[in-house]
Design brief:
Helix content is 5%, strand content 57%. It is mainly beta.
Length: 775
């Protein structure tokens, strides 16, 4: 079954390559000798030029396009470009480059007598003050002017700085208040915390649409590739008034890239994590102008990780993993550019297995955690600006997850399981500009069905969950320096007897030039549905660790507020940004786990029930500073306090588990001569409390973990080549992640270990070599 899935996936990937490769598009054959066999027009002329920035410095690697005949190329190291055998007719030229605003379309006309020369100037985007964000209010704002504080991770951060291939790698040591963690020693399930709250309180969005169910979130963070992403926006704090259940801690919005020119990028990385091989390969293809006015973007990413037995006890500490992901998106504009249709789909196949004796059948081992997942999805989106003051959006997505699993210990033949999870998400919103007010209203529907069966634990789920929400928002600008946002959402879940009302409010005040004060307050909720951890059976003391909802479980309710002061301007003529943010989240009817005995004692059974509540408060600092044109630094740190109002039932602790009171990061991006670059970061993880269940140890207890400092560094060099007249950008890099191999020193061993007893850094020391080619 596994081989059949891999063959199907590789066939689909090959079809994507054929669709998206530039060689298949008529508008990419540019050379010194014209267009392939010759131009289709009789009278021709030549065009040459140079692209400069606002400081009159030439810009290499700029995409320059002749719009009418769909021809494009890239500038050389001196910023120059040449087009030969152009038709003698009015033509339009434009230039596009990462980090710069696109040039305004310019008309020109070549002649037969002499070569026409032109100059194009691109204006640099200031990384702090000019970034456009949409997640906080669902309307576009410059980042510095947004009423809701929003962190942005750009394409440059993802691919050039970190060379990250999945969402977990991207968000590690990148955004203040965001921490990625490993939650299982056997299968390396991954979670993400926003300001200390567990991943179950975070909503992952794709272009504003919640397409990830709790079931798919079990392993999603290291499955989701970054190839299709233009940028990632992170909003911390309650956002339920716009995005519904599970957004109590915040939202992570993955924003797709819309192609404007033709390009193709191939990348490959090989390395060794703790001496065991890892490989990754991927491609991104973009076609800016296809027949019928369409544009397209497609991608593929494959990852392979060999299992690691760090303490040599015969049981893996990180699993074997094979992951394949690919997809395609098409775009078309209508109504003279006022409307846009976006449609696409993707497929993800992930196989992971941890435990002992991985070459045998799972039921012939002491411990095996195995998950073989295939998730396919499709989406459709329509955006239309009906008038200068009115716009609306219609969007829907449909996904289906199929997972074969084995979560068992002690040679159990009945621990095989099967899970299916179809999910439908639909969203409609309309906005209207009325003077100083921007009014918005919308409707959202989420529906899913969870079927799950594991005979060994008597688990037979077949449940449907539906949530219908209506939301409204008013953005009011009484002056240019003040923005007020008031929002309200009403949700009805089929697991609740009454609707839930979630209001929110935000204010931004420009205190002076470059200074902004923001305040926000919001409420949210989490309905009692099946959560990600419910479908992951950890091995604890040679037994399964099974979580179920109590029959009378009620929803959690949250109240969050934030206050922040930010400076976004320049220091000595270079961009500088710094901010401080105070945050607080209070949870009522908080969900906690309490153990109940099972009739035969074959596994450990925990019920999720309501407790009076908890609170989390803290201070967050962040810095983004271009010290020199060749050196920029970023840093973020969090101090927080997370407590239950009464001791939790298992260990009697008032403190949140696996939640350090101090954590943060610092990073530097250095551009060296000869196109060399260095990216380095240090992640700090403070001490925390971690529950440790009996098995390898004689009895349950709470451990105080050590602190960690994880240093990583990457050295790269860019080469700009010419191949048959077409420019090619080649990037080579070498990296060491976790240079000093800072990792958990007290991993449990043997068949009775507690696989949930993991904390600290996700990865061991990793040496990698990579190559990326763009043309």
């Amino acid at each position: 079954m596994e081989n059949v899935r891999r063959q199907q996936f590789l066939l689909a990937a090959a079809m994507l390559v054929a669709l998206c490769a530039p060689g298949m598009s008529l508008d990419t054959k540019i050379s010194q000798h014209g267009y392939g066999r010759g131009p289709p027009w009789s009278r021709t002329g030549n065009l040459a030029g140079t692209v400069f920035d606002q400081d009159a410095a030439p810009i290499p690697g700029v995409t320059v396009e002749i719009v009418e005949i769909s021809v494009s190329g890239m500038t050389d190291e001196e910023g120059g470009f040449t087009f030969e055998d152009l038709p003698i007719q009015p033509l339009t030229i434009r230039a596009i480059a990462d980090g710069y605003y696109p040039s305004a379309p310019a008309l020109f006309k070549v002649s037969e007598e002499s070569e026409l020369r032109i100059e194009i100037t691109l204006v640099r985007k200031e990384p702090v003050t000019e970034t456009v964000v949409v997640t906080g209010t669902r309307t576009e704002h410059l980042q510095v002017e947004a009423p809701v504080r929003t962190a942005v991770v750009t394409t440059h951060d993802i691919r050039e700085r970190k060379a990250a291939v999945n969402l977990a790698e991207t968000l590690t040591a990148t955004v203040a208040g965001v921490r990625v963690e490993n939650t299982c020693q056997n299968c390396a399930a991954t979670g993400i915390r926003l300001n200390g709250l567990e991943s179950k309180y975070t909503q992952i969005l794709e272009d504003g649409l919640p397409t990830m169910s709790s079931v798919s979130m079990v392993y999603a963070l290291d499955q989701i590739p970054t190839e299709f992403v233009e940028s990632i926006e992170v909003v911390k704090g309650g956002a339920s008034a716009l995005y519904g259940p599970n957004a109590v801690g915040g939202v992570i919005n993955l924003i797709r890239r819309e192609p404007h020119a033709n390009s193709f990028t191939l990348s490959s990385e090989s390395g060794w994590q703790y001496g065991r091989p890892t490989q990754s390969v991927g491609f991104v293809g973009q076609a800016g102008k296809l027949p019928g006015g369409f544009a397209a973007d497609c991608y593929f990413r494959g990852q392979r990780h060999t299992q690691i037995d760090r303490d040599r006890d015969g049981f893996s500490d990180l699993p074997r993993r094979d992951s394949l992901a690919g997809g395609a998106t098409v775009y078309r504009r209508f109504l003279e550019g006022k409307a846009r249709l976006t449609a696409g789909g993707n497929v993800l196949a992930d196989y992971r297995r941890g435990g002992d004796r991985l070459d045998r059948e799972p039921h012939e081992t002491w411990i095996t955690e195995l998950a073989d997942t295939v998730r396919s999805s499709g989406f459709l989106r329509w955006n239309h600006t009906a008038s200068p003051s009115t716009f609306y959006t219609l969007a829907a997505s449909l996904s289906h997850l199929d997972r074969n699993s084995y979560y068992g210990a002690g040679f159990d033949p009945n621990a095989y399981g099967h899970t299916t999870n179809p999910l439908l998400a639909a969203d409609a919103q309309v906005g209207h500009q009325a003077g100083r007010h921007t009014l918005m209203a919308g409707f959202q529907f989420l529906g899913e069905r969870v079927r799950d069966r594991i005979p060994a634990y008597g688990r037979h789920f077949d449940e449907s969950f539906r949530n219908t929400g209506f939301y409204a928002q008013d953005e009011f600008y009484p002056s240019n320096q003040v923005a007020l946002v008031a929002g309200l959402r009403i949700d009805k879940s089929n697991t609740l007897s009454r609707p839930v009302v979630s209001p929110r409010g935000n204010i931004r005040m420009g205190l002076a030039e470059h200074w902004n004060l923001r305040f926000g307050i919001s409420t949210g909720f989490r309905a009692p549905v099946i959560f990600d951890e419910d479908l992951h059976v950890a091995a604890v003391g040679g037994q399964g660790f099974v979580i179920e909802n109590s029959p009378d479980l009620e929803e959690e309710r949250s109240l969050s507020w934030t206050t922040s002061l930010d400076y976004a301007g320049s220091f000595r003529g270079l961009p500088f940004q710094a901010g401080v943010n105070f945050f607080s989240t209070t949870l009522d009817n908080v969900h906690v786990l309490e153990e109940f005995p099972t009739p035969d004692g074959g596994f450990r059974r925990f019920l999720r029930r309501n407790a009076p509540g908890s609170y989390l408060r803290g201070l967050e600092l962040d810095l983004n500073w271009s010290i020199h044109r060749r050196l920029s630094v970023r840093a973020g740190g969090t101090l927080q306090l997370a407590r239950y109002r009464e001791p939790e039932p298992e260990f009697g602790s008032l403190r949140y588990f696996r939640t350090p009171s101090r954590y943060g990061f610092a990073a530097a991006d250095i551009a060296l001569p000869k196109d060399f670059s260095i990216y380095t970061d240090v992640e700090f993880i403070g001490t925390m409390l971690a529950p440790h269940y009996a098995g390898y140890i004689p009895e349950d207890r709470v451990e105080r973990t050590p602190s960690f400092a994880v240093w990583s560094v990457k050295l790269g060099r860019d080469f700009r080549l010419g191949f048959r007249g077409s420019p090619v950008t080649l990037r080579l890099y070498v990296g060491i992640d976790n240079v000093f191999d800072s990792y958990q020193p007290d991993l449990d061993q043997g068949p009775l270990r507690d696989s949930r007893y993991v904390y600290g850094p996700r990865s061991m020391r990793t040496l990698s070599f990579g190559i990326m080619s763009s043309f």
